[in-house]
Amino acid sequence: MPGGKQKIAVLGGGVGALTAAFYLTEEPGWEDRYEITVYQQGWRLGGKCASGHDMRPGYGHRIYEHGLHIFAGFYDQAFHMLNRAYEALERPDNHPNKTVWDAFTPQDTIAIVDPDQPLPTARQWLLDFPPNARMPGTTLDTPPMIVMVQRLVALFLHGAPTRTRPPVPATQAPKFDDGGFAGVVDGVFTSLVDFVKKSEEELKACIEDFILHEIITHVEAEMLSFDSSSLDPETRLSLERFLYFGFLTQAVLHGIAKENLIHKGYDAIDRYEWSDWLYMNAVEVAKTQSPKWGDPAVRARNLIDWTPISSLYDYVFGYGDGGNTKIRSFAAGTALRSGFLLISYSGHFFWKMRGAMGDVVIAPVYLALKKRGVKFEFFARITDLSIDPTTDRLASIDYVRQVELKEPEKGYYPLIGVPIPGWPKDVPLEGWPAEPLWDQIRDGELHRSSGRDTEAEHNEEPGGGGRACRLEAGVDFDKAIIGISVGGLKQVCASFPERLPRSNWGPMFDAITLTRTCAMQLWMRRDMDDLGAVSAGRTLTGADQPYSSWSDMSHLLSRETWSGAEVPRSIIYFCGQIQGPQNGPPANIKAYDLAVSWLETNSDFYWPRAVSPTSPYNLDPDLIYDPDPGAPGDVLTRQYIRANCAPSDLYVQSPKDSVYTRMDAHQSGLENLFLAGDWTRNGINSGCAESAARSGYRCAMAVLGKLPELPT
């Protein structure tokens, strides 16, 4: 609008959209240039990262999540934004989350499932990652691939089972009765340690032949003649895992050299599926480097079936057909970048939130934006975007006003104060409720009693209806940012592929696949050690589908408000992929039925002291905390189990060839529409909060006319 502020409409309230709005408000003088309004369906922000507290009496304000959310150590953009948001809030010293580091706790050891191991104690494999002095969010530069290679080799050496290795849990510590084994590993150390110590400038001068021959050859040379037959089982297992890690390192470095990826970048191999690419290079390495070690095809197949490889697919929901483990679907370049980023963590491998994701991540960003003057329109479901018939501009945005507020001039305030045990009652933690605050809504009790769900996938939910509204370009908005996920985009942008044939809307909709996920949360009456859990305090992946990842989240008991003699002693969160066409309540019923069968099969493996032969799900129901013992149904129905099947809840996968169809923030094909979300081309191209945050940052820079080049 000439001479006035530009109106920016942000559609959706997920991490990508909120990040875009946040970095716009980081621009000096933004308030004189822009008027920003966020339009969000339902009562809360966060998208797939939304969470809520159960406010019913006796339920302890317990936390409900869409899934298992943990920040990885490479989430630099997300941590950078959170640092700035927390600083903007200027919370008092006695606030439970005054700074971002009050809200996160580090985790250096994770567990992966190695089910075929003959040693029962080795079937939950604990991997420890050494902490470092870097802090996430202090730099936004992605390390070049040559530095990633250096860190891969350093991690390989750290994993070497030698006497000088940093301490590991006692149950995992290998024995070294045979001096020859230690000598082999020492030889590898001697060969590679100089490479790890090289400066970045020296590494840039390294050519691919050096990487291939100087590293790979040394690994093989030290191993070929070693006889492991005399080792005890635990030491033999340590050697086996070390050799597999060495073989993996060889195959990856061989592929990098063969494809000249240091110069071409990761995307050059996204035409392959990750396991196919790894298998191809592992076969070549086995043929040329170590033919005496057996059939190269068998060795390569064993490598891609190795549990650290298969577990990566669980981590990224990377199986096709809703979690069919026979269908792997993760583009090779995206997978290689993801693996390198994971091992290039800052500070710690994982950072667990000390609270709900909505409280730790979404609420502070919302409050900071509100403080800066950004407006929010809740209960605004976007239904259609229309393109001008004569120009490549977005002409209008249709949405449904889902409910009417009692005091529309005040707007809807979505947060509650969660009284945290041990903290002053007048300084509660700002959090999201698990349902709308009906007292702010006209006819709120009628909506509540009818089962109205303003987050349902369409507008025909019980008690549905609403008022149709339209935003007109040049009147209600000048620029728009769309942060809706792909499942929702296919509905609200249905006309885009035909109307914009030169854009990537059609190819992207065809290439990017979506998967349903499921989540389960259990509150237990004993702590994890009493339940017999090997992985107490840790996050585990590689378990059976559909609940293939789980984590001990007992630290969240300090962010819930249980009282009395009988309170929960531990909490377990689960997530995974789920198949089937069901939606709404039928999908949740299926998630419950699958939870029963999963627990029946797996409880004695993960929590051996908690099983009961008479329990319908093997886990002793008396050990599950029941917040309402007199209610109908069994205690498992009063835990939290859900299926994420609504279009905007679907996880965005990264199958091969799909990266080439993704659009960057400025590539919508419309000059006044910008893109934000983990589905864009943003330098990670994989479904995670960091991918969404990087996309949102790029979106803000595109609006400001400062978009940097994508890292290769």
Give the overall form: globular
Helical proportion? 25-40%
CATH topology of the largest domain: FAD/NAD(P)-binding domain
- CATH level-two architecture of the largest domain: 3-Layer(bba) Sandwich
Helix and strand content put the structural class at: alpha+beta
Percent of residues in beta strands: 15-25%
- Count of DSSP E strands? 23
For the record, the CATH class of the largest domain is Alpha Beta
Average residue-wise pLDDT: 88
Note the main sheet. 8 strands, mixed
Number of helices: 20
Give the distance, in angstroms, between the N- and C-terminal Cα atoms.
37 Å
Q: How big is the Rg? A: 26 Å
Oligomer: single chain
Task: Write a concise keyword list for the protein shown above.
712 residues, alpha+beta, eight-stranded mixed beta sheet
Explain the overall architecture:
The chain is an alpha+beta fold and 712 residues long. Helix content is 34%, strand content 15%. The protein contains 20 helices and 23 strands. The strands form 6 sheets. Strands 7, 8, 17, 18, 19, 20, 21 and 22 form an 8-stranded mixed β-sheet that branches. It has a 5-stranded parallel β-sheet with strand order 10-2-1-16-23. A 3-stranded antiparallel β-sheet has the order 5-9-6, with no helix packed on it. Helix 4 (145-158) runs antiparallel to helix 5 and helix 5 packs antiparallel against helix 7. The protein is globular and about 80 Å long.
